[in-house]
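ugh ok fine here u go
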Amino acid sequence: MKQFLSKLTFWKVTAAVILLAGASATAIRFFGGLGAATNLSDEFPWGLWIGFDVLCGVGLAAGGFTLAAIVYIFNVKRFEPIIRPTILTAFLGYLLVIVALMFDLGRPLQIWHAFIMWNPRSVMFEVAWCVILYTAVLSLEFAPVVLEKFNMTKTIKVMKKVTIPLIITGVLLSTLHQSSLGSLYLIVPEKLYGLWYSTSLPIFFFVSAVSVGCAMMILESFLSSRAFNRGLEMNLLTEIGRVAVLVLGVLLTMKIVDLADRHAFSLLMQPRMETYLYWFEISIGVLIPLVLLAIRKVRENQNGLFLSAVMIIIGFILNRMNIAITGMEGWAGVSYFPTWMEITVTLSIVVGGFVIFSLAAKYLSLFKHEEHEKSSQPINEWIEDLRTVSQGN
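structure:
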């Protein structure tokens, strides 16, 4: 008993409490229905579980396709030391998004309908299939790490041969549904508040996902460095910070041009809650980190880099929550705030992700890196292999 108590820490106890609360909320949700567990209604059907768990969850996992494209397609090998934890983070992110959808769907056991009941004209159909396929791709990308644990060398060799086409497929799928999440709101021009509604929403969603993907790589590296007593690849993270500056600059420029095209600058001066939240979102998620990361001393400083990444992530979450909730409340004529059950389910899903990641770091070679790993061959070599095979046939 003493040995067990000695292993308990504040964070372990906190995680256990959150998971227990989440389990009780889960029971109420599935036995009592959405009405018993949420503050959702016919007037306001999408709340925290869509705004945070889905819209934010998919975006926060964007580091996977961003870094995979950098390492395997553009052949920038120096980023390989952080590829495995980044892919795992993305994989867990998508798995947890699927779990969150099970809570939000009125009939969760019918989630499989997307496989057989096709509606190609629906944006939700495209998002569903892309998320399903990309989750499968991420599982295959991460599979070699698990196979190493069991010394399945032959299977690993086979997996490495299909790494490049898997990466290309994953990047394409992720690009499609990251933007398609924004397309979901194109059909509500009269419902979504003017500061957030735009015909460029799909592009905004994609570019912001790339920016937060960079921030998540930095955050994940910092947290895993402290949690598992490993070194911090500051040279690599500094370069990612430079990429974030470029992406944030593009995002800010696009938003300014969009407001000008829609003659919506007057909305920035309206004395209402939407205005204040929009300015807060832009300031903390785009303007301030853009200025900070543009300064070399800040970018090369651990605290400055970490703070900038956290601000980008907070700004991204605010943007998605504003679009899903704040921007829709005015039209709906209702004020929505999630119940304790909605909050604890969301927290338990996040905590579950942290627990699984820590177990993977403990039992798998998550931070192992082989300098000359064959799976990192450039795309032109893979194409050359295909040519050789076709000529032989």
